[in-house]
Design a protein that fits this description.
The complex is a heterodimer of chains A (259) and B (321).
Chain A: H1 3-25, H2 27-30, H3 32-53, E1 55-56, E2 59-60, H4 61-91, H5 96-99, H6 105-134, H7 142-166, H8 172-186, H9 199-205, H10 209-222, H11 229-252
Chain B: E1 13-23, E2 29-39, E3 43-48, H1 54-61, E4 69-74, E5 77-78, H2 83-89, E6 90-93, H3 105-115, H4 120-133, H5 149-161, E7 167-171, H6 179-194, E8 198-202, H7 206-212, E9 215-220, E10 223-229, H8 230-235, E11 239-246, E12 260-266, E13 269-275, H9 280-289, E14 294-299, H10 303-312
Parallel strand pairs in B: 3-8, 3-9, 6-7, 7-8
Antiparallel strand pairs in B: 1-2, 1-4, 4-5, 9-10, 11-13, 11-14, 12-13
Helix pairs in contact in B: 3-4, 3-5
The chains are: A mainly alpha (259), B alpha/beta (321).
Chain lengths: 259, 321
């Protein structure tokens, strides 16, 4: 390996390690809340309301919402990890530690994306553990499940990075999660099959990237989905590529980082 | 004609700046075609009032700021063509605290080393030595926010050295540090320089620059006002100002000898303006003949400070006396 790439490899591991330690250092903020929130979802939507709903796509409602809730945790945690970590570095100016060093932009991007994925996947695992107390889950297609969760956490880590690059104040890092991410997640088929929607809303929902992620993951876990897998993977890959290119271009132009 | 850096060593050069200009998005021009050369192994002072362009110059050289025009080369490597190599050669100690206050001292340093491609195992050995030299060894596992102001400043210096850079740029490294710690830092910086590292220092403590720097450049409103060896710059002072502490009242003060002006500040304090090359013996004899004894004397201000005020009070193009 050439000295340049060795430097980049060490820098990547360093960013990843720093992000991992940050997640552990503030675990009551990073890992714990999802477990509590998702337990409440299972109790309220699954146990109390779910009994009245009965079956959804031939699956008990508690089991039906479990993959969606896992994905919800993955999405929100991947996003919020990167947005808060990178904006914190920008706000407190220790992002300059990276800017003065010979780290390639793509390595910075991959490092933070990796950090977001670590948190997203860890909370996903925690929520899966919680789900097992409430529902019987058999993994039907492990590779679909695994690739979907990886693509999803990477995509939303990149989205969080973009948000952090554009953000100038702390309000800016809460606006997108509150007014965009949460509605998209709730309307992305976490709690219901889009087959129950009127045609107009069903068509509109197809513009929501989370729909494809939740359904692909549900296919991997339960073997049921509103969307064909070819279409789901095409859309997921498209969104991943789109966010990666956008985040890289904005970072490379050093928007909000260099005067 | 702006002054040129004719006194810089012919080669090798640690830093070469040609026609560097910077205009910010708001339209403010911070640098107007700056030319500057710093020789390898020099201890170089970059001085100027707030807004002179020091931090912008440092920001451009260290990749924190984009230039509008001109060229920067570090040890022969062009910033535009070999940015990674230029960054690898430079260690920056910034003016403001900019590390993660929630990380430990060791993590801050090993992370920074990692960003330069230094593996943790290798970095640990180097960090142990640097922390000991900066008297921070006992704070290795302390969280940064628990450090005192002076310790945080030294941690910034330590961080700038973790990848063993050849050019160290220190932007106000002793701001807010007590006198004793400042002296220790000076000794440390001298040692770094004696090991062969090139050091560029900006400071508002002109005493610091006078003590440490071989050559000094003074910037004013984004232009190079003057540059040269410290001693040569100081000889440009037309006169020096002393404060004499007299053991009796200055009531019977005689007329001053040629080349000297004086005035009483209070009954026991005399402010004396002495032109260059004036024989001080004549001055003391004149006072002794009048029955006045000088108990002590001191410079009214730091000599470099006098020069700085003298130069920056004039238009940039005015000749230096």
């Amino acid at each position: 390996m050439s000295p340049y790439w060795r430097t980049q490899a060490v820098a990547f591991v360093t960013i990843l390690r720093r992000e991992f330690l940050r997640i552990l250092r503030i675990w009551p903020q990073t890992l714990f809340p999802s477990a509590i929130t998702m337990t409440l979802y299972f109790v309220i939507f699954g146990s109390i309301i779910g009994r009245r709903v009965g079956l959804m796509d031939g699956v008990p409602y508690m089991a039906y919402i479990a993959p969606g809730l896992v994905m919800m945790a993955v999405i929100t945690n991947s996003y919020s990890n990167v947005v808060s970590s990178f904006f914190g570095a920008k706000f407190s100016r220790y992002v300059e530690e990276l800017l003065v060093a010979p780290v390639a932009d793509v390595v910075v991007l991959l490092g933070y994306m990796g950090g977001g994925m670590i948190r997203g996947l860890t909370t996903g695992l925690i929520v899966t553990g919680v789900a097992l107390f409430f529902a019987h889950l058999e993994i039907r297609h492990p590779w679909i499940m695994l690739t979907t969760v990886l693509i999803t956490s990477a995509t939303f880590s990149l989205a969080g990075f973009l948000n952090a690059l554009f953000a100038r104040k702390f309000d800016d890092i809460s606006i997108i999660p509150t007014f965009v991410l949460t509605p998209l997640t709730y309307l992305g088929g976490v709690f219901y099959s889009i087959r129950v929607l009127p045609p107009f809303w069903r068509r509109l929902t197809r513009f929501n990237p989370i729909l494809y992620m939740v359904n692909a993951f549900r296919e991997g876990v339960l073997g049921v989905s509103d969307i064909g897998m070819v279409r789901a993977y095409t859309m997921m890959s498209l969104f991943l590529a789109l966010f990666f290119i956008a985040a890289y271009v904005v970072l490379h132009r050093a928007r909000g980082l260099k005067s | 004609m702006p002054p040129h850096d004719d006194e810089a060593p012919a080669s090798p050069l640690a830093l070469e700046i040609e026609g560097l200009s910077k205009t910010y998005a708001g339209g403010v021009t911070a640098l107007h075609g700056l030319d500057l050369r710093v020789g390898a192994g020099e201890f170089f002072g970059l001085l100027g009032a707030n807004g002179a362009g020091k931090t912008t110059t440092i920001g451009i050289v260290t990749s924190l700021c984009r230039k509008s025009g001109g060229h920067v080369r570090v040890y022969g490597h062009d910033l535009d063509r070999e940015p990674a190599e230029v960054r690898r050669l430079i260690g920056l100690c910034p003016q403001e605290i900019n590390f993660n206050l929630f990380e430990t001292v060791e993590d801050i340093l090993t992370n920074q080393a990692g960003f330069y491609g230094v593996p943790r195992r290798v970095a640990r050995t180097l960090i142990t030595r640097i922390l000991e030299q900066l008297d921070l060894g006992a704070k290795r596992r302390a969280v940064a926010r628990t450090l005192s102001g002076g310790m945080k400043r030294r941690l910034l210096i330590a961080r700038s050295l973790v990848h063993d850079p050849r050019l160290v740029i220190l932007d106000e490294p002793t701001a807010g540090v007590d006198v004793e710690m400042r002296r220790d830092t000076w000794a440390f910086l001298r040692r770094l320089n004696s090991e062969g590292r090139t050091i560029i220092l900006t400071t508002h403590y002109l005493e610091e620059a006078e003590h440490l720097c071989d050559r000094i450049a003074i910037l004013d409103h984004g232009r190079l006002l003057t540059v040269g060896p410290r001693r040569e710059l100081l000889t440009r002072l037309a006169e020096e100002v002393y404060l004499f502490d007299l053991d009796s009242t200055a009531a019977g003060l005689p007329p001053p000898p040629p080349g000297v002006r004086w005035r009483t500040l209070d009954p026991h304090t005399l402010e004396v303006f002495v032109a260059r090359d004036t024989d001080l013996t004549t001055l003391f004899l004149r006072l002794a003949e009048a029955g006045l004894r000088v108990r002590s004397l001191r410079n009214r201000a730091n000599r470099l400070e006098e020069l700085f005020l003298h130069l920056t009070a004039r238009p940039a193009e005015a000749p230096v006396p």
